[in-house]
Structures are given as structure tokens and as C-alpha cells.
Design goal:
Structural class of chain A: alpha/beta
Number of helices of chain A: 10
Helix content of chain A: 25-40%
Largest sheet of chain A: 6 strands, mixed
Oligomer: homodimer
Strand content of chain A: 15-25%
Shape of chain A: globular
Order of helices and strands of chain A: EHEHEHHEHEHEHEHHEHEEE
């Protein structure tokens, strides 16, 4: 099995160290598993891993290469929204046969792929998570899912009878109304957040819960909300209280917490039915 | 003339000092001008100037009181989105005869009022701006507009033949798709921003420029983008380049810069025709 890694978002300066660590992990866990880091991972253009054109070209190249079985987004940060629509328009049939895995900023691409009917799209750990404390467990989990669909890699509360989708809260808010927004009717929607103020989470929930699309979800589960930015004055409510508040106002069932987040414990959530 | 000040957003702990300064300015500039600070300005509930119910009740009370000629939002921060729809639903005919002035987070209310057909809604300085360096000029400008519609208070580039609207960029993004979103077709839209990362501005422009409503504006002008949060790595483009990029991608004419922002030089932009 061959996995291609590309970096559609922020620049990825430690990519060679990550490549070596992830390669060693892959070799140790699954014989015959090859993880190919596209050299685009090493490009730099300001904030990004290469210009929009360079990131688009690399993504289109691996998507359309039938020798790859999966595309694994290298890291988050910011920027895949700038290229997602144009890249998707250039994907051929070989792209639909692949698995796609990532989270955080890569959610823009997961959304566009899922909207376009790609069957094997999932929210889960990325190569650069190997640099986190305990990150080898996260990357091992992603590799096990990519290589063998190992059940241990899955978010433990997934409901086999239901469709699911998972997103970073801010990313989901920013893709509403764009060409990337997927139909989430009857889905269990799982969201997580990192490095935001609580007032921004409240504001994002105001925005999301007003969406007719979001109001049709089966229910919402909240992953971890980590590294909350401090605010003066304190907001006065925690993230779960905020999310419950807006779900209740909008008539969206709140289905409790979920085991995803910007951390080494992040589990895999396949889009659609498990 | 009587102006009522209420605080629909963040708590306003220095409200009595601001009230005294603004009262003195009003008395010095316009005889017979009374600025009434509703005692709700002094309430505190966590982040907010009182609970949602308290802020809503105060706003509804002054909106429906025919003895006030104008409602002036005390300050920004965060929180008017939580009460705007419910408050507007309780406004009676007296509310439509009033002028409404504010900016920043108060943009949620300006949007909802303008959407509901209120004729005298404007984006401009608020009482708490008096605490800024040089802020007496900003508040004097707002008072001159409220009392006499003084032309010197207006943003100098307004086009008398066109309709206008002005918003904080993030606030506008978060109200898209909500019950507060006004029709901006054929408007000159002016946006400004404060205390955001450049990548967040890029992401907000991605979101805004995908909106069918925004794609129908006559054109966009960019106010000041101040106190940009530093980022590692640097984004690599400045705010104007970012805004021009997304306008070009979406076919939205870019009409240049505008004299509004989170500062003492902030000018008044009446919604609709000047």
C-alpha cells in the first residue's frame, strides 16, 4: 500500500524529520506500507508550503496518480481553502478510489471531497502530529486506519447506524456558504477547537447554529477545546456550556463529548457511514 | 434632542467616567442635547454588560421610548449577536423613528436593523471611544452627526448616488446566513478590522467573497486594519493585498481605502443612501 503526503496549508519546515519518523513507524507497524512525502512539503512561500499553484499542482498530481492508495494531509495551519475548489476541479477518477485523511485546516478539503461524493474521507491525525508529546500513538493510529481500517483507531462513540462528519469549529464556520460546504443533513456532527477565545467560540456557534444545513444534523458532539486563549474579562461560561446553549436555541440535539481534538489522543472519524 | 446609550455587548466598567466625559462634550457642542446613559451600562454578567435578558430589556425599553430620538451603542467587545434577533422582534413603531449609531460588535444590531428596513442606521464612533487617545474628536464627530447630521462627520469618500454599508470584517462574516444578514446588493460595502491575524483576515475574505449576497455589492472599500496580531511565520501579504486578492477572485470591484477603523479618526457611514 502506498500513501502520499502533501502539504496544502502552512509551510512545513521540519518535514524531513517528520518524514523519517513517520517512515520508521510505518515500517515497524505494517509490512509493505510505503509513505511517500511529496517534495512540495519542503516548499515555502510566506505562510504557506509553496505558492497556491505549487500546492495545487502537488495535490492534483498525487490525487490523479493511480499508484497511491491514500492521500494524507501533512499538517494543518492555514491555507487549504485557497486551493481546494481549483484542485478538486482537476481531480480525475483515480482520486475517487483513494482514502483521504487529515483534520484542522485540512477540513476545507475533507468538506469539498465529501460534498463531491468521495466515499473514503476521514478526519484524523496527520504526519506532523508525530512531533507532539505522545504523538507516535496518534500517527500509529492513523497508519493503522489507513493500512487496515483498524477499529481501535476509530472515535469510540461512532454510531454504526448513522452518518458522521467532523470538523474544526472555525473551519466549519468559514466554509459555510462556500463551494466546499457539504450537506450535513441527518449526520452526527463532531466539532473540536484549539487556540481560540471563548467569545469566538460563542460567536462561531451563533453563526453555525443559524445555518439551515446545520439545523438538519441528527445531533452535535463536542470534541476537545484546547489551549483556549485567555480573555479579560473572563467569558463566564465554559466551551461545553456555550455549545449546549446554541444547540438548544437552534433545536440541535447535543449528543455529548467526543474523543477528537488537537492532541495525541485524536481519533479517526470517517465521513458518512462507519 | 435626547440620545439613549445602552450596552448590548461587553461589560462597561468605566461607564460612569465615560458618561461624564461624553455629557460634558455634548453640553459644550450642542445646546439642548441630552445623552442619557441607561443604568444597564453598569451591569456585569461574566463577559457581558448584564445577562442576555437584562441587555435585551434595556435595549427594547429605550427603542420603544418615544422620548428618545437616537440610540447610541456604548461600546463593542462581544455579545450583541446573542440578543439582536429577540430584541428586534420586540421593537415597536417608535424604534423606527430613531437614529442608531455604533460599530464593531454593534454591527450585528446595525445589520438586523437595516435588514428590517430601519431608515436611519449608521456605522460610527461610540461613547467609549472617548477613552482613546484623541477620542474626544471621535465622540464629538458622532455627536455632531446625531445632533445635526454635520457633513464633516461623514466618511469623505461616500458616493451620493450609491447605497452604503459598513462593518467589521469578522462581524460581517459571522452574521452571514443568520437572521441579521441584510441585502447588500448594489451597495458600496466598507469593512475594517482590528486585533486579528492576517491569516484570519484571509480566511474571512474567502468566506465573505463566496457569498452570493456579497458578490452582488457594487464594490468594496477597505478601512483601517489595526493592531494586526503577529504570526510565526509571517503571512507574507498585507491586508490590502489579501482583500484585493479575494475581490478579484470573486469578481467584486475593489474601490480602494476608506476612513473608518477602530481609532479616533473613525468617520460615520450611514447605511443606505447618504
Amino acid at each position: 500500500m502506498r500513501i502520499a503526503v502533501v502539504a496544502p496549508s502552512s509551510r512545513f519546515e521540519d518535514w524531513q524529520a517528520v518524514r523519517d519518523q513517520v517512515g520508521a513507524l510505518a515500517a515497524a507497524r505494517h509490512s509493505g506500507l510505503e509513505v511517500h512525502f511529496h517534495p512540495q512539503c519542503g516548499l515555502v512561500d510566506g505562510h504557506f508550503a509553496g505558492t497556491d499553484a505549487q500546492r495545487t499542482d502537488a495535490l492534483v498530481e498525487v490525487a490523479n496518480d493511480p499508484s497511491f492508495d491514500a492521500i494524507w494531509f501533512a499538517r494543518g495551519g492555514y491555507g487549504s481553502n485557497r486551493i481546494a475548489e481549483a484542485a478538486l476541479a482537476r481531480f480525475g477518477p483515480a482520486a475517487r478510489d483513494k482514502a483521504w485523511l487529515g483534520y484542522s485546516d485540512a477540513g476545507f478539503l475533507l468538506a469539498g471531497l465529501y460534498r463531491a461524493g468521495y466515499a473514503d474521507v476521514a478526519h484524523g491525525p496527520m504526519p506532523r502530529d508525530v512531533s507532539r508529546k505522545g504523538g507516535e500513538a496518534a500517527v500509529g493510529r492513523a497508519l493503522d486506519w489507513l493500512a487496515e481500517r483498524s477499529p481501535h483507531a476509530l472515535e469510540p462513540g461512532l454510531d454504526r447506524g448513522k452518518r458522521h462528519a467532523a470538523f474544526n469549529l472555525t473551519v466549519l464556520g468559514m466554509l459555510l456558504g462556500t463551494a466546499l460546504e457539504p450537506d450535513l443533513a441527518d449526520h452526527v456532527l463532531i466539532v473540536e477547537e484549539v487556540s481560540e477565545h471563548l467569545y469566538a467560540i460563542d460567536r462561531a456557534m451563533f453563526h453555525l447554529s443559524a445555518s439551515a444545513n446545520l439545523r438538519r444534523v441528527a445531533g452535535l458532539r463536542l470534541g476537545r477545546v484546547s489551549d483556549v486563549l485567555s480573555n479579560d474579562p473572563e467569558f463566564g461560561e465554559d466551551a461545553e456550556t456555550i455549545v449546549r446553549h446554541w444547540c438548544e436555541r437552534a433545536g440541535i440535539p447535543f449528543f455529548g463529548r467526543a474523543d477528537i481534538g488537537h492532541d495525541a489522543a485524536n481519533k479517526v472519524v470517517p465521513f458518512g457511514r462507519v
